[in-house]
Predict the structure of Isochorismatase family protein.
Amino acid sequence: MQHASALLVIDMQNSLVAIAHRAAETVAVIAGLRERARAAGAPVVTIQHRGNGMEAGTEGWQIVPDLAPAADEQVVHKTSADSFLDTHLDKTLKALGVTEVVVTGFATEICVDTTARQALSHRYDVVLVADGHTTSVRPDSGDYVRPGQSIAHHNEIFRHIDFPGRNIRVLPASEVDFADPSVL
């Protein structure tokens, strides 16, 4: 079955990327995916969080320059971890004919995880880009696991989620091929 894929770029905003684990590497991976998606004619949807400390129009709220959406790309504004909740994301994806979302962004265990799971509930297939999501840098002490462990943990969970009727894959960016959806 052929899939119409869209690249989701979640919360890659100045304030968040400033505290991200492997920020430069993640931005570079997503930038490469954006180029490949655009070259293949696949839609890119940028999701931008707004809230306390992330007020619309501020420098910290802006998308990082390397991932700034083009004039013809869709931008969805959200106020929760769920990119579908009280937004036009589902309507936008349906209007574009999307059946599968390629998920990237910040933060792995919050907005990326929630949005990927909600995409499944909204009947989209999901590709979680294994090297295309990140989380915050943290102290080694405390209740949070280290960032690298959190990323690996979520990649592994998505490799094993059973969601009837949905196709879920975890792929490195190098294996995502927007030109040939059957490869996805």
About this structure: The chain has one domain: 5-175. DSSP finds five helices and six strands in the chain. Helices lie at 14-17, 23-40, 89-95, 108-121, 147-160.
